[in-house]
Amino acid sequence: MLHGPSLAIGAAIASVVIIIAFLGFQGISNETELTIQPTPTAQVSGPPKITMETFLDNGSPILGSPDAPVTLVEFGDYQCHFCNVFFHSTEDDILKNYVETGKVRMIFKDYNIIGPDSITASHGAHCANDQGSFWEYHDILYSNWTGENNGWASSENLLKFAKEINLDIDEWSECMINVPHSQKILASNNDAKDLGITGTPAFFVIGPDGKVTKLFGAQPYKVFQKTFEIELKK
């Protein structure tokens, strides 16, 4: 059990997390923008190069069998209303019928479009991943969703969620202050932009032959089922 002073220290650390994490994220973004220098001659730039790494890198650990023939990639924001709708109305059926049976593996990638708490929540999940608990933290975030930019994903609540899934609070709090996953979160956001995503949730189903099917929005389970079955027949 955690003693009183330890909890107090953890709470004090967490109280500044949202400010530090968000400023750290902004700092990285601004630094990236400052590296873009004007060139003396006009250059024609084509569309971003999309590779399989655009879908698979900079995301969560794989949920399900690494050898599953079909991959489902979700780009989401933890404050997003329709991401929450998908989590509560559709994801459980996908997990039960396809992920747990070894047919589909799932990856979650960050696309933070709602507000600062979205970025801090992403850090919380990746810091939980350092302790092998990404998906548990992902689930507790969506299970406690109450709206957009209304404070439910505050630093205090993120700390509470970490306690509820029995994380090492000192380790998690240190991670939240040092924000070691900022580059990964930023890269995931850039992947979303390269793919032309304008909202969340956005899904990509990758079949055994590498074909990619786009599904935008909180589609009903039957839409995912139909897409999976088409790919599984290949």
The first-level CATH class is given as Alpha Beta
Terminal Cα span = 51 Å
Query: What's the architecture in CATH terms?
Result: 3-Layer(aba) Sandwich
Largest sheet: 4 strands, mixed
Rg (C-alpha, Å): 19 Å
Counted by DSSP, the helix tally is 10
In spatial order, strands of the major sheet run: 2-1-3-4
Number of domains: 1
Principal-axes geometry comes out as: globular
Describe the structure.
The structure is a single chain. The protein has helices at residues 4-15, 17-34, 52-56, 81-99, 116-129, 134-143, 155-164, 169-178, 182-194, 221-232; strands at 70-76, 104-110, 202-206, 212-216. Helices cover 53% and strands 10% of the residues. The longest helix has 19 residues, at 81-99. The chain has ten helices and four strands. The termini are far apart. Helix 1 runs parallel beside helix 8 and helix 5 (116-129) packs parallel to helix 7 (155-164). With 234 residues, it is α+β, with helices and mostly antiparallel strands. 35% of the residues are buried. It has one domain (4-32, 51-232): Glutaredoxin (3-Layer(aba) Sandwich), CATH 3.40.30.10. It has a four-stranded mixed sheet with strand order 2-1-3-4.
Chain-wise SSE layout:
Layout: H1 4-15, H2 17-34, H3 52-56, E1 70-76, H4 81-99, E2 104-110, H5 116-129, H6 134-143, H7 155-164, H8 169-178, H9 182-194, E3 202-206, E4 212-216, H10 221-232
Parallel strand pairs: 1-2
Antiparallel strand pairs: 1-3, 3-4
Helix pairs in contact: 1-7, 1-8, 2-5, 4-10, 5-6, 5-7, 5-8
